[in-house]
Write a structure and sequence with these properties.
Helix content of chain A: 10-25%
Oligomer: heterodimer
Shape of chain A: globular
Order of helices and strands of chain A: HHEEEEEEEEEEEEEEEEEH
Number of helices of chain A: 3
Helix content of chain B: 10-25%
Structural class of chain B: alpha+beta
Number of helices of chain B: 1
Number of strands of chain B: 5
Radius of gyration of chain A: 19 Å
Structural class of chain A: alpha+beta
Distance between the termini of chain A: 23 Å
Strand content of chain B: 15-25%
Largest sheet of chain A: 8 strands, antiparallel
């Protein structure tokens, strides 16, 4: 009955010649879901381009000191786990926080680090993805959600997804540099933070084309063709990779992250939309997606 | 978050070491799903790392409500 209704809706859509492409994709996604014969799409389906995958809903990947997180294991297969041995800098695991699932929260001085990865080394495209909540609408400048340092300084950025690129005021965005010797550059998106509201954020440094991109809740809100210079990043391992930033770039108290992902290499529109759909449905944020998003009505499947 | 402030690095190191002793560090973490100890993963080894601030004094995060609120001028800027 439900499939018949979907087919009827599809015919109406085709006859009306209105928004065929987007609506068709939504119907196909919904039909696949209702058919029940397909497996859910996950970031693992990105293949080797997936290089870090942190999932707060997977308790088996989290090690605790009381309620503090001492280690958040990377599910990508690279083993680039994030950890913190200093108690006062360990973030908090908040249970039943978003769609019944736990998330990780900073008190403003917390961070999880990995100092042994080769993240975003000698790559043409770097992408950070986060499901995050911001506690304040403005400041501090260049506060990081997810950060990869450059090769010669652990508190200096190669590429970060930032809550507040400076200058930029209250807007989300990206920041960093291509080569270790290059100057730092921050670019704001057109989406302002809303206090205590969850967002699906994707920030991308397309170093190959000297371009920066940002998408919020499935809609692109930044395309900057003046980001750094064209080429690959430095062929050096980052000094550190951080959840909630580094020494002078820490996310403010109350910032929460539910899921964090790093991707190296090109990210197709199709894969980006699947990623957005996966995150939206997993964390109960599907209402955030635009009405014409291909996974507005159902999560992606394989 | 409040900070404890010291005039010298040694004073800060000694104070932080006493806190670590009181808290029984190093401490083995437990898995959030199973509740079982995970000795092969990240240990909690210390309370805080003393940092020197712009005026030359040393600070670290207070384990209680005692202490001083951080002054933004304490930290340098490096993006």
């Amino acid at each position: 009955m439900r499939k018949a209704l979907l087919v009827f809706l599809l015919m109406v859509c085709v006859d009306a010649q209105a928004s065929k492409s987007a609506f068709f994709q939504q119907l196909m996604a919904a039909e696949l879901q209702l058919g029940g014969g397909s497996a859910p799409w996950t970031p693992a389906d990105l293949g080797t381009n997936l290089v870090v995958w942190l999932d707060a809903s997977d308790a088996s990947t989290i090690t605790l000191n009381g309620s503090n997180v001492t280690q958040w294991d990377d599910k990508s297969g690279n083993g680039w786990d994030m950890s913190q041995s200093t108690s006062s800098a360990q973030p908090l695991l908040v249970t039943d926080a978003l769609n019944g699932k736990p998330v990780i929260q900073t008190d403003g001085g917390d961070r999880l680090d990995n100092t042994t990865s080769s993240l975003f080394r000698n790559v043409g495209t770097a992408t950070w993805v986060a499901v995050a909540k911001h506690p304040v609408a403005t400041g501090p400048g260049n506060a990081a959600l997810l950060m990869c340092s450059r090769g010669d300084a652990n508190n200096s950025t190669r590429f970060m997804l930032t809550a507040n690129p400076s200058p930029g005021g209250a807007f989300m965005g990206v920041a960093g540099r291509r080569l270790d010797i290059d100057g730092f550059q921050a670019i704001a998106s057109s989406t302002a933070r809303i206090v205590d509201t969850w967002f699906i954020e994707i920030g991308q440094a397309d170093y190959t084309n000297a371009q920066a991109n940002h998408w919020t809740n499935g809609a692109q809100d930044l395309t900057a063709s003046t980001f750094q210079t064209a080429g690959n990043t430095s062929d050096t391992d980052p000094e550190s990779v951080n959840v909630f930033g580094s020494t002078n770039l820490l996310a403010p108290a109350g910032t929460e992250i539910a899921e964090g992902i790093a991707i190296e290499g090109p990210l197709s529109t199709e894969d980006r939309q699947k990623l957005e759909g996966y995150l939206a449905w997993k964390w109960g944020l599907e209402s955030n997606l635009p009405v014409d998003h291909p996974y507005k009505l159902a999560p992606p499947t394989v | 978050m409040k900070y404890l402030v010291f005039n010298t690095e040694q004073e800060a190191i000694d104070a932080e070491a006493q806190i670590c002793m009181d808290k029984g560090y190093p401490k083995v973490g437990v898995n959030a799903k199973t509740g079982l100890a995970e000795p092969d993963k990240q240990l909690t080894t210390r309370w805080a790392i003393p940092k020197q601030i712009a005026d030359g004094r040393w600070v670290f995060e207070s384990p209680s409500e005692e202490g001083t609120e951080a002054d933004p001028t304490w930290w340098g800027e490096d993006a």
